[in-house]
Amino acid sequence: MTSADVAREAGVSRTTVSYVLNDTPGVSVSAATRERIRAAAARLGYAPSAAARTLRRGRSDLVVAVLPDWPTGPVIDALLDHLTDVLATRGLFVLVHHHRDSRDLADLWRAVTPRAVVGLAPFAPADVAAMQRAGIQVVGSREPAGDGTPADGDGFDRSQRGIGALQVEHLAAAGHTRVAVATTGDPRLRRFADARWAGAREACRAGGLAEPVRATVRDDEPATDVVAAWRAAGVTAVAAYNDEVALAVLAGARGARLAVPGDLAVIGVDDAPAARVSAPPLTTVAQPVDAQAEHLAAEVIAALDGVEPPPFPRDPAYVVVRDSA
């Protein structure tokens, strides 16, 4: 169906159809005519062409959120949902793209011509330069430092380091001086894991604690051997990468006949539903994804308006205290 079909159905000109369906400002069309045109478009199943609207306006109303090759979960889902809601108030639509290295990222923005691209992980410098040359606003493009540690200016990575630090600070406040970090072996999550590990190490140094030990823990089997080795080395508390890893540590503690938190305190991340019903209930770090999504949306809007983006909220995560720590 085309606008010409709608015009014939409604008994008006194609130009009037364009004015009404595209909400063209400064044009006088009666309410009755507007209603007749919209009703005709609905009956015919017509919608204005996004490509044509982009050509006419010289810009699109599409924001692409590029999600790297990460496993999705409730935190990412909630962040994207809230980002979509916030940007909708500016008339912007969000398209989520799960990027894989097997295809050039340039193929994406050439195909959909977005107004802005939001990266949940850093883009390659060449991709950033190409998008900027095409007039696309780029948000979240900072690369990590050369040694693999997150860039100081990257608010997202600062928040991840803050999570690791928050875990250690909570354990230290309870009197623990020997801490282990149970990390994930999923290569897709390495950036998160490295940032949280860096935060845990920084917090240990700042608090005068011994250097933390680190081991990879699978989230689909009890970490009995790892937990037993840690306890033999004097570890009394574990900061787990997330709640799933923490649950494997709890299972490992049971297998090693250790009491939690008497022999070993455990803290996770994400405040997943399972954390509330584990044995014992899991202390964890909650991430207020609404604040993170609002910040991302504010960065997009600031980029489109040509103004400075707001500062990233400082370490917005917080500890949910339960029995495990």
Low-confidence stretches: 143-155
Span between termini: 62 Å
User: Helix and strand succession?
Assistant: HHHHEHEHEHEHEHEHEHEEHE
Gyration radius over CA: 25 Å
Described by strand count, sense and barrel closure, the largest sheet is: 6 strands, mixed
- What's the name of the CATH homologous superfamily of the largest domain? Response regulator
Helix content: 40-55%
What is the number of beta strands? 10
Strand order of the largest sheet: 6-5-7-8-9-10
By helix and strand content, what is the structural category? alpha/beta
In CATH, the topology of the largest domain is named Rossmann fold
Query: Strand percentage, roughly?
Result: 5-15%
CATH class of the largest domain: Alpha Beta
Mean pLDDT: 84
Features:
single chain, 325 residues, alpha/beta, 434 Repressor (Amino-terminal Domain), Rossmann fold, 3 domains, six-stranded mixed sheet, four-stranded parallel sheet, elongated, Lambda_DNA-bd_dom_sf, Peripla_BP_I, HTH_LacI, LacI family DNA-binding transcriptional regulator
Q: If you had to describe this structure to a student in words, what would you say it looks like?
A:
The chain is an alpha/beta fold and 325 residues long. The protein folds into three domains: 3-48, lambda repressor-like DNA-binding domains (434 Repressor (Amino-terminal Domain)); 60-141, 3-Layer(aba) Sandwich (Rossmann fold), CATH 3.40.50.2300; 155-288, Response regulator (Rossmann fold). It contains twelve helices and ten strands. The protein has helices at residues 3-10, 14-21, 31-44, 50-57, 74-88, 105-112, 125-133, 155-173, 190-206, 224-232, 243-255, 289-305, and strands at residues 62-67, 93-98, 116-119, 137-139, 179-183, 213-216, 237-240, 265-269, 283-286, 318-320. Strands 6-5-7-8-9-10 form a six-stranded mixed β-sheet, with helices on both faces. Strands 2-1-3-4 form a four-stranded parallel β-sheet, sandwiched between helices. Strand 7, helix 11 (243-255) and strand 8 form a beta-alpha-beta unit. Helix 1 (3-10) packs across helix 3. The longest helix has 19 residues, at 155-173.
